Model the fold of this input.
Amino acid sequence: MWISLLWMLLVIISGLLLNALLFKVALNRLRSIEEKYGISFKNRFHTILQLLIPLLLVLIFVPPLAISTEVALTLRSLSTVLFIALFAWFLVAMVLTARDALLSRYDIKVKDNLHARSVHTQVNVLVKILIIVIGLVATASAMMIFESIRDLGTSLLASAGVIGIIVGFAAQRSIATLFAGLQIAITQPIRIDDVVIVDGEWGQVEEITLTYVVVRIWDLRRLVVPTSQFLEKSFQNWTRISADLLATVTLHVDYSLPVEIIRKHLYEVLKNHELWDGKVWRLHVTNAGERSVELRALMSTANSSDAWELRCHVREELLGFMQKNYPQCLPLLRAEVHESKPRGIDGKISNAS
Done:
């Protein structure tokens, strides 16, 4: 009994020393990878392997203890379950490390980030699926260790037809939502950081899961939308193909305003502003009503945020220019006033002044 315990202690100490040695050697070789991808292997793997390696050595090299068979089997089963849990934890850490290494190559903070957002969306959704699969396999493997649970699983499989129908009806909505999440990851009608309008709200896609999408509204509120809504209902995606947009400013002015002067001033405003990308600008008379003329200024920008800022700036500049130089050309309400002459008792116009 004591010899077995001393042997177990020696094996555990050997496992801890082996873990320390492996990390010392591995970190020296992986330091360049850590600096390149910004990943800390020690923070992510040291605790896991500090438990996993000694436990693995105990399961392999420690002989059965001189105790009753029932207690020995229980301890062996618990050790195996613990090993499965630690190994699943190790696999999850590997998946997360691979995700971080891959996504570090695609920066979504740059202006032209269409491909990067596509990769981030696909990788994040697939990582969540892998973690769920690892958890399910680890749970199933742990359940198979115990005879009683294994028998229960056999009984459940025998009635799988009835249970499958019940579960299918009960989880129909949830399963449809999960498949919607997979479809979004593959077809990508939306990506992380896309600018969308959903339920009348303008915002950016902040997070995509298998069941819901989080949209960050412009005033920092969060709109949580089921993934199925992006497949079943129409919505606006302003950055589906590219991030650049055409911003518009609409003004209502009087008929007497010289349009060509306003057009030249619009160009002066745009060429001196950093948010205009220099590709497109126009000024058109888009409508002529009974009391005013409608002007539409068109300008191109790199993204939706720049479009909003530039639109506000151009509107302010054009209004200020008209107020300063052509105040009489702002929308006016015209009326004709006719002088009325006094009438006599008989209704005829009197010539008396």
Remarks:
- Confidence is low (pLDDT under 50) at residues 156-163.
- The first strand starts at residue 195 and ends at 198.
